[in-house]
Amino acid sequence: MNNTDLTVDICGIKLKNPVIAASGTFGFGREHSDYVDLNKIGGISVKGLTLNPREGNKPPRVAETPAGMLNSVGLQNPGVRYFIENEIQFLRQFSTAIIANIAGNTIEEYCEMAEILSDADIDAIELNVSCPNVKAGCVAFGNTPEGIADITSQVRKHCRKPLIVKLTPNVTSISDIAAAAEDAGADALSLINTLLGMAIDIEARRPILANNTGGLSGPAVKPVAVRMVYEVYRTVKIPIIGMGGISTGNDAVEFLLAGASAVMVGTACLVYPDACIKVCEGIEQYMKRHGFCRVADITGKLMLNT
Amino acid sequence: MSKLLKEVITRVERATDSIFRITVASEYISANAAPGQFVNIKCCDGAQALLRRPISICSVDRSKGEFDLYFQVKGAGTEILAGKKRGDTLDILGPLGRGFDLDIGYRRIAAVGGGIGIFPLLFLLDESKAVVKRSYLGFRSSGQVLLLEEFGERSTSLETATEDGSFGSKGFVTDLLERDIISEEFDMIYACGPYPMLRKISEIAGKHGARCQISMEQRMGCGFGACLTCACMTYTDDGSRHYVRVCSDGPVFNSEDVVFE
After folding, report:
1. Does any CB of chain B come closer than 8 Å to the CB of residue A218?
2. Rounded Cα–Cα distance for residues B241 and A236 (Å)
3. What is the mean pLDDT of chain A?
4. What fold is seen in the domain B108-215?
């Protein structure tokens, strides 16, 4: 097989390849552009935006843990209007999809941001209803089927872009949450956000993070994430963007087999600025090795043991 | 501009009980690094010691195309690094960060270092064109004292202090600076060391209206400005406070800009 087609279509968003930089690990692309050609990345989900600028949490905001890391940045960002006026133009120099990740304290804030961004030159909106690091709102919307249905349906009325709802793993049944988001009008789902965790400095007898708890990411969370993608794929019809600890093409293929149509690479982008490109090359090699012509041919091709 | 590099180690040496010296051959970094900048090292492939370890550049030999790193073994990553051998390859991102401002007009400078914070000051003294260079180094105890000869060669004067008085004068290095700050009329004070030391130096400089640059430390994620984890609270021109990034807006800041919390 010589003709491997890496393009994917996620609810109308055309991606040149299935690898997207995950929100919060890629800023607005400027820093990574020193190391990688952003034209080679399928898409970029930008740093989580809020209606007004946010300072974020006190440092320390990061702690390394076995095969992973905890973060509690707390959505430090310059606000949605700054993003539109100062960052989109930079990103548009490159042929990569722009996904605006948004978070808010109230449903009204989400709706207002969706309204503003629907008139901006972006390709999709990703609803962050699962940030574990901010006290008010946000996480509260994402952890019950009722909560996610409510926010998704209301934002849907204001959103004239493809709407991706990002799911938190910190729930009892991810498939119930996923089904509620689908029924309420989500065009696609992305999962998983970080797992709530804690690391303790035993000498000081204090948590390492100033915020005490933070979100766990990196290779450590991958098996949990793959299982959740697998469960959600069996429940919903809309496309799934899988993420959680992907750092190689083989990691990404696990998510595709479990049911993802595309993947996001997060923590690996912090360690290797070119991680997205390496992941993409790995997917392509797998496709050649197994004779897959299109990425969509891999999605959900998991064969369960009986 | 920083680059993702694979470079070869030419020397690994134990400097004290817990501090190691690694010399790395790198044309790019030795040609482009500035004092106060750092490199971010992936200590091993894969998920172990997942994040890169930021280590400041201690000195650069431009003719040989080499640079030196000194680091303390503190955890999994630095332990792996200490076990490297001559000839091993190092996965490096660098040079990173905004280093010290070495204006030609700074004729009289002080370099104040505490513990493992002394290392970037060696590179600074090498590159500074100042006429008077007074170095003040502080350590916990005599067992931690190192690089005195190297600092001596690059300074017009060198004084040390240890907390327990086992080497040099007893007390803190900040006491030495405070003693000299009026009489020496420094054009610039450069400092790197633990947080309480930098806070004290910032206070002393502020009290005497002296100009001072400090190199801050914070737990980092990426080291190149993308993840926003290494936050440092600073004052902006309008007096408001904002978090900036230690890795890319710093690590060197004017001491009057940093909000010590």
Report:
1. yes
2. 46
3. 95
4. Rossmann fold (3.40.50)
Q: How many Å is the Cα radius of gyration of chain A?
A: 18
Domain CATH for A112: 3.20.20.70
Of B49, B219, B225, Cβ closest to residue A63: B219
Establish, for the pair of chains A and B, how many residue pairs have beta carbons separated by less than 8 Å: 106
Indicate whether B215 pLDDT > 70: yes
Q: What is the pLDDT of residue A137?
A: 53
A25 interfacial to chain B (CB closer than 8 Å) = yes
Report the relative pairing of strands B53-61 and B38-42 from DSSP bridges: antiparallel
Does residue A305 lie within any of the structural domains?
A: no
Shortest CB distance from A61 goes to which of B2, B3, B231? B231
Please tell me if the domain spanning B3-96 has the same topology as the one spanning B108-215. Answer: no
**Tokens describing residue A256:** 């595709």
Report CB contact under 8 Å: B221, A71: yes
DSSP code of residue B236: -
Q: Report ipTM (2 d.p.).
A: 0.94
pLDDT at A218 > cutoff 50: yes
Amino acid (1-letter code) at residue A15: L
Total of domains in chain A: 1
- A21 to chain B: nearest residue by CA? B226
Instruction: Decide if A64 touches B, using CB distance below 8 A.
Output: yes
Is A82 a member of any domain?
A: yes
Residue A69 lies in a domain: no
The CATH topology of domain B3-96 is Elongation Factor Tu (Ef-tu); domain 3 (2.40.30)
Chain A nearest-CA distance from B244, in A, is: 9
Is residue A135 predicted with pLDDT exceeding 80? no
- Nearest residue to A242 (alpha-carbon basis) of A220, A263, A218: A263
Tokens linked to B180: 């000299």
A8-29: per-residue pLDDT in tens?
999 999 999 999 999 999 999 9
A187 is a domain residue: yes
Q: What is the pLDDT of residue A1?
A: 46
pLDDT tens readout for residues A138-159: 557 889 999 999 999 999 999 9
Q: In the predicted model, is pLDDT for residue A161 greater than 60? A: yes
Residue A197 C-alpha from the chain's centroid: 18
Distance from the A272 Cα atom to the nearest Cα atom in chain B, whole angstroms: 8
B40 SS3 class: strand
Would you say residue B132 has pLDDT above 70? Answer: yes
Helix, strand, coil percentages, rounded to 5, for chain B: 25, 35, 40
Contacts of B58 (CB under 8 A, 6+ apart): B21, B67, B68, B69, B70, B119, B120, B122, B123
Contacts with B243 from chain A: Cβ below 8 Å: 55-56, 59, 76
CB of B55 within 8 A of CB of B120?
no
Best to test chain A binding among B3, B229, B235 (most A CBs inside 10 Å): B229
Shortest distance between the Cα of A178 and any Cα of chain B, in A, equals 28
Torsion sign across C-alpha atoms A109, A111, A116, A120: positive
Domain definitions of chain B by residue range: 3-96, 108-215
Q: For residue A121, what are the domain limits? A: 8-57+75-198+217-297
Residue A2: both structure tokens together: 């010589």
